[in-house]
Amino acid sequence: MPQPKPQNAARTIVGADLDTIQQRGYITFAAYEDFPPWSFEDAGQPRGVDIDIARLIAADLGVEARFKLVTASETLDADLRNWIWKGPLVGGRVANVFLHAPYDSDFACRIEQVTFTGQYHVEEVSIAYRKDAYPEEKPVAAYFRFDKVAVENDSIADFYLSSFPGGQLAANVNRYASAAQAMAGMARGETKAAMGPRSQLEFGLTDDMGIHSPPMPGFAKSKWTLGVAVHFSYKPLGYAVDDAILAGIQDGRIERIFRDYGLTFSPPELR
After folding, report:
1. In the chain, is it the N or the C terminus that has fewer CB atoms within a 10 Å radius of its CB?
2. pLDDT averaged over the chain?
3. If DSSP states are collapsed to H, E and C, what string results for 23-84?
């Protein structure tokens, strides 16, 4: 369905085109706060895979990268409304680029104020496990009828395991405030395994842990592609960002960013 268009909004509110960004010398990125390994604050400075990819984009455009670390809303629709095409109700302005935007063709058609572009990684749900608990066979979801598993509260892994046929696993699901805390709980021996997006689990892996991505029966979408989002009015900016990311994939710079954080890089099919 068509979405409401911004009305009576000043240019400073609804963003800036590529020429304006290059003339003023900086580009603003919105990234989620407290979201390791993707975006987080370290010693007062933004760090993470998404942050480094943003700096790569800015370098290719010949401008400085500036960041807004923002709190995730209840829905992606609200995040895009607040930080790309309209602006938050209280305080702050839109950014030029929204990082870590999952791509879905149906969703992209519905949110017509936003252009989804710059796809750079395929994320998937995985299971991390303690090697001493599973010395021979790697665990799959059915194992958690008997074994404790850690998840981030209200995450897709939480929903999946809690709704596993007949609620058979619900009693063995230990919920934590974040994926990082779920991995820490497993390291302390509170669970034998942890389930969630592979990159977040990998960031907390130690030598005595393993990780794999088994088939997920009944999982509607266990893999998804990550990219960026820009305001639909600024097509040249979208093309420039997309070109910068594609170049970073092709010359290996983005793979090196993932490697620096100890992560597996899974590029989408090159266009």
Report:
1. N
2. 91
3. HHCEEEEEEECCECCCEEEECCEEECHHHHHHHHHHHHHCCEEEEEEECCCCCHHHHHHHHH
